[in-house]
């Protein structure tokens, strides 16, 4: 029997750091895109993260898992790398050329809403309750508002609609990946993350070469943003995520879902001077409200235990 989650003050600090750093990622991507082409940004970010994660994995002795007879199939790992990082990072970087960082962060709030109906059809024993259906419906009203023409007209980008669709497709990829990870046999979480990041970098590399040619030397601000994305946002926060899950449990980890879109909107407005149209704020409220309703039982357990 696994031990009960131990939610301490350190747990709250760690989940707060995760929410803030992952929420700031969309703002940092905007900064990096001022000097680095979007596909190369994805490749460099994943390559840096894979190298850092490999160091953590090395400290574990490059262990793969506890059951040598139940190893994941290589194609399962390649697929996980593709939908966890390779494809999403390409789409997110491309899409953020045409939408604000606040919009991109708000789109990611839809991930839990997509996971629930996916799990209903793809995972045995996971069925949608009436409360979950209400929450998902409310949340998708917010998503529909995000896609709507009036959501962020202020950017004036010609490809803004497709930028929105790219960001929402990223949310779909992350949701699909959460289902995929459940089907992979239990292995060392650091090993899995390292392999997925390395696979993602190999997937994005040909897109970078074929569409953007040889990379140039980025300006200092964009370079610093890239290092932050690779080392802090991707590698370090994945390790912190593991610490939170192991100590406080995966249910407590879901609190990050509520923080990320809020920080992305706040930082985009305060640091980058992005506009805050009412439709974006209403969509954010609908999505977070939908997530809260659909995950109410989990949220209640967190605060009762905390």
Q: Mean pLDDT, rounded to whole units?
A: 83
Distance between the termini: 21 Å
Uncertain ranges: 150-154
Q: Care to count the β-strands?
A: 0
Mind summarizing the main beta sheet? Answer: none
What keyword list fits this structure?
306 residues, mainly alpha, transmembrane, EamA_dom, membrane, AA-Vitamin_Transporters, transmembrane helix
Give an overview in words.
This protein is mostly helical. The protein has one domain. Helices cover 75% and strands 0% of the residues. It is built from 13 helices and no strands. The protein has helices spanning 9-32, 38-59, 74-95, 101-108, 111-122, 130-147, 160-183, 189-212, 220-248, 250-253, 256-270, 278-294, 296-305. It is globular.
Q: Can you lay out the helices and strands and say which pair or pack?
A:
Layout lengths: L8 H24 L5 H22 L14 H22 L5 H8 L2 H12 L7 H18 L12 H24 L5 H24 L7 H29 L1 H4 L2 H15 L7 H17 L1 H10 L1
Helix pairs in contact: 1-4, 1-9, 1-11, 2-3, 2-8, 2-9, 3-7, 3-8, 4-7, 4-11, 5-6, 5-7, 6-12, 11-12
Subcellular location: Membrane
Organism: Celeribacter baekdonensis B30
InterPro entries: AA-Vitamin_Transporters, EamA_dom, EmrE-like
In short:
With 306 residues, this protein is mainly α.
């Amino acid at each position: 029997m696994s031990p009960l989650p131990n939610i301490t003050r350190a747990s709250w600090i760690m989940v707060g750091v995760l929410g803030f750093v992952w929420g700031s990622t969309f703002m940092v991507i905007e900064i990096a895109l001022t000097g680095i082409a979007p596909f190369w940004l994805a490749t460099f970010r994943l390559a840096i993260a894979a190298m850092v994660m490999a160091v953590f994995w090395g400290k574990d002795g490059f262990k793969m898992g506890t059951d040598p007879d139940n190893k994941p199939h290589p194609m399962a790992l390649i697929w996980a790398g593709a939908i966890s990082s390779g494809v999403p990072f390409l789409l997110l970087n491309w899409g953020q050329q045409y939408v604000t960082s606040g919009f991109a962060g708000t789109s990611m709030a839809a991930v839990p809403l997509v996971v629930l109906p996916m799990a209903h059809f793809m995972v045995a024993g996971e069925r949608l309750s009436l409360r979950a259906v209400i929450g998902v419906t409310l949340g998708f009203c917010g998503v529909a508002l995000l896609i709507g023409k009036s959501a962020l007209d202020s950017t004036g980008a010609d490809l803004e609609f497709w930028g929105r669709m790219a960001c929402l497709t990223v949310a779909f990829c992350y949701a699909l990946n959460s289902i995929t990870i459940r089907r992979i046999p239990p292995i060392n979480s650091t090993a899995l993350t390292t392999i997925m990041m390395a696979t993602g970098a190999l997937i994005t590399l040909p897109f970078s070469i074929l569409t953007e040619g040889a990379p140039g030397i980025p300006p200092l601000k964009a370079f610093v943003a890239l290092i932050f994305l690779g080392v802090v946002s991707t590698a370090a926060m994945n390790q912190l995520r593991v610490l939170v899950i192991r100590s406080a449990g995966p249910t407590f980890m879901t609190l990050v879902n509520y923080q990320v879109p809020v920080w992305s909107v706040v930082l985009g407005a305060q640091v980058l001077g992005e506009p805050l149209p009412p439709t974006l704020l209403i969509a954010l409220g609908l999505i977070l409200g939908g997530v809260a309703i659909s995950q109410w039982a989990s949220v209640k357990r967190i605060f009762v235990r905390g």
